[in-house]
Amino acid sequence: MLRVVFITGISGSGKSVALRTLEDAGYNCVDNLPVRFLHDFIASAHDDGLQRVGVSIDARSTGAIANLPNTITSLRALGAEIRVVFLDADTGTLVQRYSESRRRHPLTDRLFREGIAPSIEACIAHERELLGPLRELGHVIDTTGLTPSQLRSWIRNVVQADTVPPVLTFESFAFKEGVPLDADLVFDVRCLPNPHYDPVLRPLTGRDAPVASFLAAIPNVGRMIDDIAGFIRTWLPEYMHDTRSYLTVAIGCTGGKHRSVYVVEQLAAMFAGQGQVLVRHRAQKQFDLYDPGGGPADPGPPPRSTTPSAGP
Fold first, then answer.
1. pLDDT for 38-86, tens place per residue?
2. Using CA atoms, how far apart are residues 123 and 130, in angstroms rounded to an integer?
3. Is pLDDT of 300 > 90?
4. Among the four 29, 140, 221, 243, which has the fewest Cβ within 10 Å?
């Protein structure tokens, strides 16, 4: 059955946050689709075999808002499961949010009279009047005092969205090139013995068996990996509880070729199966989906998986 969620409500109450939450949960989303196009859009989604669709409807579509109840009835006749979420907040909170964002209310031009712009309060009052009938169509969420994280959590609960497995990315990098801007957690492994000073190991990487054997024989290397893994295991649930859908762990050494690469490969193997695990080796320009059966590779081969991560 096609699941359709309509996000509507007062401007500034969090509709953009709600729509992005649906996108993260696997919904195909459209922002501010005119009501007159809803039936054709949902019918097309049904015919295309889509399972989840999210649509944001706001005061800019007021011309046909009165037709929305009939549209929902006809969509349900198609076999679609319809859920309406109406977001609201008290006027003081909405005024403060507009003040902080410095954005104009979407009804400002519509209420412009005799060269005088309407106040934010007047726009909000008019919008409440226009959208009043939609409050009766579904679940109302008062976002007054809610953080974006709390609102995302509430939206997921209301629409009963499945929890998306986290994307856990381990990436190696060279400190001499700078810390990656996309890193959420950064660990420095430059204190570990460096294979670079062994002429035999120098041209190899941390993905090659000789380098891996060299580092695996050093107790402190194992301790470092276990400590990093323990930290991630402890705090990963808290990151996910904050409705984060990804976490990037960057491991750095001097050249990004031996120690950091080896540690990343070991961590990826340890966390395989806990959501989607991606491996990035910046110094080697390799961005792979972790393949637990891939094993070490010589420098410069094609990625072990044909499904690359969203690398920079």
1. 888 888 888 888 889 999 888 776 556 777 778 877 777 777 788 889 9
2. 11
3. no
4. 140
Shortest CA distance to 133 belongs to which of 195, 70, 196?
A: 70
CA dihedral 185, 190, 192, 198 (to 10 degrees): 140
In the structure encoding, which two tokens stand for residue 290, read together? 């972790």
Q: Are the CB atoms for 71 and 39 separated by under 8 Å?
A: yes
Tokens representing residue 143 in the block: 């976002």
Q: Do the Cβ atoms of 131 and 57 come closer than 8 Å? A: no
Residues 18 and 84: their CA atoms lie apart, in Å, by 12
Q: Where are the domains of the chain?
A: 3-159, 167-289
CATH pick for 3-159 out of 2.60.40.10, 3.10.180.10, 3.30.1070.10, 3.40.50.300: 3.40.50.300
Q: Is the pLDDT of residue 138 over 90?
A: no
Listed residue (301, 220, 305) closest to 262, CA to CA = 220
pTM: 0.60
Under a CB-based contact definition with an 8 Å cutoff, are residues 128 and 10 in contact?
yes
For the four alpha carbons of 55, 57, 60 and 61, in that order, the dihedral sign comes to positive
Q: Quick one: tokens of 81? A: 């499961």
Edge-to-edge strands, sheet with 81-88: 28-31, 52-57, 3-9, 81-88, 139-142
Q: What is the pLDDT of residues 206-223, one digit of tens each?
A: 999 999 999 999 999 999
Distance, in Å, from the CA atom of 215 to the CA atom of 177, rounded to the nearest integer, reads: 23
pLDDT-derived band of residue 88, with 50, 70 and 90 as boundaries? very high
Helix (H) or strand (E) holding 171: strand 167-174
